[in-house]
């Protein structure tokens, strides 16, 4: 089959590799009908996530048709059309039972690597996202092996198009969880979203669905801000205005009640903080540039929430903890507990509350993936979200 | 191999050889409770710790708080005993888990460094450890057996390696199952030298124990071990040529780091 392969930092190619096979009786094989490139894949492209190996198959946002199931798979049948959460969960451990699927105890075969790096605990496995997270082959390919087949894959029985349900695999639940964990008081709270990439777009729309009085989206890319405006959000271009001043003004000096950092560790920014981050990243002392997080903390209103769907990988210093403490902020973060949201968010799509395909700007074949990784990274050609057809 | 002890020259070659073997065996024994090369299975961790991507770990190490570095330390108390302990919480009742451990002949399935445990009678058993350098065995006896709560054992007088251990089973708060705590102790005959050489060999008891406990948890909770071993990749064609023979239940079958 054809697959998108990580060949080294800033080297991504499409190669022909053996088809996946069942390795355990609880596995299934899915023939992929649509697959997407995620903003977090860009952290892999530029080598910021440790433990990638040449030859790894990328991709964690995919859906398709079940073509084979292991003998212990009970719920899933050949022919089922499924979306597959980007994270793997066992469904039986204590975190899974409590709904903290991304913190699964059992789904990461390389737990010892994560334990070594993060000091004693490991999250669950992820598709196509480095060996710390299990080294599972990803879904930017024609077929994929799906472990824990009775736990993750979610059947789509309505006739919604792929493009309407594909993002249930990651960015829609990720944006939604970011908004949900703010604990928005409907009709009262103002929510600011840093980063108008795909997750930021879904976070902004989710905050609206949850009743935010106003949503303010901050970015520097005009077409991304335009997409947020189309949903009724107010926008701030941080290259044209001072963000903190603009947010104070927009909120009568209070600051947004909740702030979502949908940027994570690759924030661009200005000033001495940004410069320090960049030097540390260059010196490989830190994986993280944190301008967005600094702004989020400094702008957030008293008693507010800093919600962080953006990915962080390492250590951070020069964080304004004094400001966070003085205002009594609440921090929420982590990988998305995708499994929780599949049913509820599918219902919202079916009810016409949202059509997730709004975010797609580029459609291409798998062969074009290497080129589109770069287009997406460089934000060329108005690129916000790329969907690939593995059979095109 | 050169004689690390600098054996005196008037000893016959074969004698030196024998001494070396003994040294090696002692060394092995000193590591006995759980030594397995990090080499293949831990390769990735090491690359992570010391490779380019591991700058984080390097920085942490410089600050003395690197979890990898901590894990690499071999902790010895004032009496010269090396101690290793760890715990895991498993979503099953204590009685059930205790029963698995109490079947001593099953221990090699739980603790991978053990080659064999033979039950001799109610109290006594014969333990064999196999490592990269050879085989060591000794007799042990149960010093405590509290059903559903605790099992403890100790090597008998004159064992080639003085060692012991205990496993505690206690209910986790909030109906989360059972907390299992394993404590092992052993006396390294070569003292700190043994420990240093052990580290050079890349053998690491606390990591081994951690792996054993996680494997046990997954066996009990899932009934299988998650794996990526044998999955397709851009390395697949090459791998088929170089892949060593997979051993059932071994590092490869567990999907250990490559
Ligand atoms: Zn993603
Ligand atoms: Zn789990």
From TrEMBL, chain A:
Q: Which cofactor does it need?
A: Zn(2+)
User: Which keywords accompany this UniProt record?
Assistant: Metal-binding, Oxidoreductase, Zinc
Task: Read off the InterPro entries from this record.
Answer: ADH-like_C (IPR013149), ADH-like_N (IPR013154), ADH_Zn_CS (IPR002328), GroES-like_sf (IPR011032), NAD(P)-bd_dom_sf (IPR036291)
Transmembrane portions of the chain: none
PROSITE patterns documented for this protein:
ADH_ZINC
Enumerate the spans annotated as Alcohol dehydrogenase-like C-terminal domain: 198-265
Q: Which Pfam families match?
A: ADH_N (PF08240), ADH_zinc_N (PF00107)
Domain called Alcohol dehydrogenase-like N-terminal: residue spans: 25-151
GO MF term (any one): oxidoreductase activity
In which family does this protein belong, per the annotation?
Belongs to the zinc-containing alcohol dehydrogenase family.
Under which name does UniProt file this protein?
Glutathione-dependent formaldehyde dehydrogenase
Organism equals Deinococcus ruber
UniProtKB/TrEMBL annotation, chain B:
Residue ranges of domain Coenzyme Q-binding protein COQ10 START in the record: 90-213
> Which residues fall in a compositionally biased region of kind Low complexity?
245-258
Q: Which InterPro entries match?
A: COQ10_START, ORF3, START-like_dom_sf
Top-rank lineage group of the source organism: Bacteria
Q: Name one Pfam family in it.
A: Polyketide_cyc
Residue ranges of the region described as Disordered: 218-258
Q: Which PANTHER family match?
A: POLYKETIDE CYCLASE/DEHYDRASE AND LIPID TRANSPORT SUPERFAMILY PROTEIN (PTHR33824), POLYKETIDE CYCLASE_DEHYDRASE AND LIPID TRANSPORT SUPERFAMILY PROTEIN (PTHR33824:SF7)
Record's protein name: Cyclase
């Amino acid at each position: 089959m054809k697959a998108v392969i990580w060949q080294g930092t800033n080297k991504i190619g499409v190669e022909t590799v053996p088809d996946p096979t069942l390795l355990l009786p609880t596995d299934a094989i899915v023939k992929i009908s649509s697959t997407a490139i995620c903003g977090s894949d860009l952290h892999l492209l530029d080598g910021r996530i440790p433990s990638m190996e040449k030859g790894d198959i990328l991709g964690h946002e995919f859906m398709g048709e079940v073509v084979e199931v292991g003998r212990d798979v009970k719920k899933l049948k050949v022919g089922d059309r499924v979306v597959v959460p980007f994270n793997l969960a066992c469904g039986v451990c204590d975190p899974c039972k409590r709904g903290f699927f991304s913190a699964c105890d059992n789904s990461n075969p390389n737990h010892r690597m994560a334990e070594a790096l993060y000091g004693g605990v490991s999250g669950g496995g992820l598709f196509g996202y480095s060996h710390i997270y299990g080294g599972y082959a990803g879904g930017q390919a024609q077929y994929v092996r799906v472990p824990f087949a009775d736990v993750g894959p979610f059947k789509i029985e309505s006739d919604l198009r792929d493009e309407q349900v594909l993002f249930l695999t990651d960015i829609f639940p990720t944006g939604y969880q970011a908004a949900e964990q703010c604990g928005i008081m409907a009709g009262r709270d103002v929510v600011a979203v840093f980063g108008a990439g795909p997750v930021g777009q879904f976070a902004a729309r989710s905050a609206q669905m949850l009743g935010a009085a106003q949503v303010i989206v901050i970015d520097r890319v005009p077409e991304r801000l335009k997409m947020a405006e189309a949903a009724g959000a107010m926008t701030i271009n941080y290259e044209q205005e001072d963000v903190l001043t603009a947010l104070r003004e927009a909120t009568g000096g209070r600051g947004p009640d909740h702030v979502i950092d949908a940027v994570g560790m690759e924030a661009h920014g200005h000033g001495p903080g940004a410069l320090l981050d960049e030097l540390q990243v260059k010196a490989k002392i830190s994986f993280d540039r944190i301008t967005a997080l600094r702004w989020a903390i400094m702008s957030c209103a008293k008693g507010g929430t800093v919600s962080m769907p953006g990915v962080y990988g390492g250590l951070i210093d020069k964080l304004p903890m004094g400001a966070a403490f003085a205002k009594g902020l609440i921090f929420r973060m982590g990988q998305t507990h995708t499994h929780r949201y599949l049913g509820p968010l599918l219902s919202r799509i079916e009810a016409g509350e949202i059509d997730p395909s709004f975010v797609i700007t580029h459609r291409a074949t798998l062969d074009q993936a290497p080129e589109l990784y770069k287009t997406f990274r460089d934000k060329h050609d108005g690129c916000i979200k790329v969907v690939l057809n593995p059979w095109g | 191999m050169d004689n690390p002890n600098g054996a005196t020259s008037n000893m016959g070659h074969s004698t030196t050889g024998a001494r070396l073997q003994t040294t090696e065996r002692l060394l092995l024994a000193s590591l006995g409770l759980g030594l397995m090369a990090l080499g293949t299975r831990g390769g990735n961790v090491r690359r992570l710790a010391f490779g380019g991507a591991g700058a984080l770990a390097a920085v942490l190490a410089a600050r003395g708080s690197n979890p990898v570095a901590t894990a690499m330390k071999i902790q010895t108390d004032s009496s010269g005993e090396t101690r290793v302990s760890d715990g895991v919480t498993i979503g099953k009742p204590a009685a059930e888990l205790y029963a698995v451990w109490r079947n001593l002949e099953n221990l090699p399935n739980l603790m991978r460094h053990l080659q064999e445990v033979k039950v001799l009678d109610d109290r006594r058993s014969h333990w064999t450890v196999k490592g990269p350098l050879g085989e060591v065995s000794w007799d042990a006896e149960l010093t405590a057996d509290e059903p559903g709560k605790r099992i403890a054992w100790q090597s008998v007088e004159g064992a080639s390696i003085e060692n012991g251990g205990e496993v505690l089973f206690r209910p986790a708060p909030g109906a989360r199952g059972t907390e299992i705590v394993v404590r092992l102790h052993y006396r390294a005959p070569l003292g700190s030298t043994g420990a240093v050489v052990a580290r050079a060999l890349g053998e690491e008891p606390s990591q081994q124990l951690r792996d054993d406990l996680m494997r046990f948890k997954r066996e009990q909770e899932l009934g299988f071990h998650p794996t990526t071993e044998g999955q397709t990749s851009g390395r697949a064609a090459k791998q088929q040529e170089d892949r060593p023979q997979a051993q059932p239940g071994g590092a490869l079958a567990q999907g250990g780091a490559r």
